[in-house]
Amino acid sequence: xxxxxxxxxxxxxxxxxxxxxxxxxxxxxxxxxxxxxxxxxxxxxxxxxxxxxxxxxxxxxxxxxxxxxxxxxxxxxxxxxxxxxxxxxxxxxxxxxxxxxxxxxxxxxxxxxxxxxxxxxxxxxxxxxxxxxxxxxxxxxxxxxxxxxxxxxxxxxxxxxxxxxxxxxxxxxxxxxxxxxxxxxxxxxxxxxxxxxxxxxxxxxxxxxxxxxxxxxxxxxxxxxxxxxxxxxxxxxxxxxxxxxxxxxxxxxxxxxxxxxxxxxxxxxxxxxxxxxxxxxxxxxxxxxxxxxxxxxxxxxxxxxxxxxxxxxxxxxxxxxxxxxxxxxxxxxxxxxxxxxxxxxxxxxxxxxxxxxxxxxxxxxxxxxxxxxxxxxxxxxxxxxxxxxxxxxxxxxxxxxxxxxxxxxxxxxxxxxxxxxxxxxxxxxxxxxxxxxxxxxxxxxxxxxxxxxxxxxxxxxxxxxxxxxxxxxxxxxxxxxxxxxxx
Length: 487
Ligand code: NAD
Known about the structure:
The protein has 16 helices and 22 strands. The chain has helices at residues 46-63, 68-84, 86-97, 101-118, 121-124, 160-171, 186-197, 212-220, 233-245, 268-280, 299-312, 332-347, 383-386, 402-410, 425-434, 470-476, and strands at 12-14, 17-19, 26-30, 37-42, 128-134, 137-145, 148-152, 175-179, 205-207, 224-230, 249-253, 259-262, 292-296, 351-354, 373-376, 393-399, 414-415, 417-421, 439-442, 458-459, 462-463, 478-486.
């Protein structure tokens, strides 16, 4: 698991071997905090994907028949190895994604929790039976793996999101082909090495690096039975439609625009900290980021000055520096895209109360840094209130009542997450009942994924039926068979 140098072309992991991609094209993988290239990622083709799928198909023939108790043993060993390499993985995530050490450490921890969940497979994949459905006739429901699963992940959680998918798919008896984000491909290779060390037979897990062509290879390959995707909304919709048209089961977790409602009865100090961590954690590059605040009644008067003062004081820098509150964004072009949204916000009449384009942090190198930006006077129809910016930009709207605030939040075409800050149980309950979102928080910064529960959004934040993790993941990665017998 050596650290890649800038001339290293990353290899694909196929049938238990690190192999060169057939692809001629590569992309640099810069460290977002310095702009220095760490490696080159190959843009694998459908031919590379075919090799990986063929290896997964071959491995499936034996892996599906390995007793689930033995498959779970690999997961127990993986959990121990992940704990032992927690710091290595954390540092890889910081270097390839730019987030802070604390954020990366937490991400790896959330991923390990899914492995802990998957260790329970012998209980989780049990079927059920009913004797005497008719006189002398018994019916039993059994679960089977489905075959080769393709997993396509985004750049913003390079360790956690692959761990939402592969551990559950594999422990259920499937084999897996992972296509990591081409922007953050390093931790995927570290994870593959840990799976191998945990004793996973060759071909059960494969990694194919690349972008659109590799994704299309997975979506259309007849050997792939199911696709787990996490990424932006347009790509999620495309993946869902294309994979379904090719006869595959699909779950596609998509983009977001998350609202945080702050009631006047909330502890405003605490609410300010929650809002800042929600909006600016991971430099705003989270599908759960509370990037749009709706203050109710008088809340704005106390909350907004605190937000501006504290956001201005945030230390922006390398994620490896323990003094850093917020790291860089992923790429220079992404930074330009965020700056463009700031210009649009100004043009559409919002007040830029804190301009994160001013005074970029003094860091050695050419990192992709922005400071936190805050808009006030935002209205629901403005672009910055509707579109996912995916950067450190907070938009503040005002409402007279909780009802109005909920209506504003529900006006979004997205429905990934929503949060309320309040000291009123009645307000929290009303919010919980009426808000149109899959992940709901009460007095938390983000309603983070909990491995033992299903995770996904509503509306255009999700395409599919069964969510990631929890019992939904067991259903997604298994096929049911009902046997009725008379002897
Ligand atoms: P992205 O959609 O650009 O990329 C995701 C994956 O799709 C990558 O592996 C990429 O190579 C591939 N891809 C990109 N463009 C493609 C195309 N045209 N055709 C086929 N494949 C393509 O997403 P990203 O920028 O890496 O990640 C950020 C996005 O992911 C945000 O919108 C965020 O909200 C979303 N996200 C959602 C969740 C969730 O749980 N709902 C979690 C994390 C991230």
